[in-house]
Design brief:
By secondary structure, the protein is an alpha/beta fold. It is built from six helices and seven strands. It has helices spanning about 25, 35-45, 100-105, 120-135, 155-165, 175-180; strands at about 10-15, 50-55, 85-90, 95-100, 110-120, 135-145, 170-175. It has a seven-stranded mixed sheet with strand order 4-3-2-1-5-6-7, with helices on both faces. The radius of gyration is 15 Å and the shape is globular. The N and C termini lie close together (about 10 Å). The mean pLDDT is about 95.
């Protein structure tokens, strides 16, 4: 961990909310280690003195467990401590929230993003694509994300598609261990 340089980087912790535990609403998920890996990332990032951004999805859909005022809108227990900023949003992209994420990052000269959270192929992927297009060096921590079966694809197939689509164009796919050890691309 001593090689981890977080001076111009931010850890984006995307939508790690209790409402995603509602299997009746979302269906089967993958990666049961996701939350543990997010906790490890968050602890290591804070130990290194890095910038932490929490993002919360405040759904406007009447039936969503992520609606404000519902228990599912709260962060899961693994999300501890105070972030440097809390972004709330109603869309898939963290760049369309309040306060304005891009402006906030630019004011702090952040050039590198490390993305973890829920779900792999929606809010995390959308944010990675936009981050890449905005000029950030994006590290997508695949094993610190999870998603749900959708249509005729299971969650693992969707994760594979996300990794294939992002890697080398919008982001670099990394693991929790690579980030913590300093092996992730912009940490070396």
């Amino acid at each position: 961990m001593s090689r981890m340089n977080v001076a111009d980087a931010a850890l984006l912790v995307v939508d790690v909310q209790k409402g995603f535990d509602d299997a009746d609403y979302w269906g089967p998920r993958n990666n049961p280690e996701c939350e543990e890996n997010i906790g490890r990332l968050l602890e290591a990032w804070r130990d290194a003195g890095g910038t932490v951004v929490f993002i919360r999805h405040d759904s406007t859909e009447e039936q969503s467990p992520l609606r404000p005022g519902q228990p599912g809108n709260a962060f899961k227990d693994v999300i501890t401590g105070e972030p440097d900023v809390l972004i709330t949003k109603h869309t898939n992209s963290c760049f369309y929230g309040e306060p304005d994420l891009h402006a906030w990052l630019q004011e702090r000269a952040v050039q590198n993003l490390v993305i973890c959270g829920i779900t792999t192929n929606h809010c995390c992927e959308t944010t990675a694509r936009m981050g890449g297009n905005l000029g950030y060096d994006v590290q997508f921590v695949l094993d610190a994300t999870h998603t749900f079966n959708r249509g005729d694809l299971d969650a693992d197939q969707l994760v594979h598609a996300t990794a294939t689509n992002l890697n080398g164009e919008f982001a670099t796919i990394v693991t929790t261990d690579e980030v913590i050890s300093g092996e992730a691309q912009f940490f070396t």
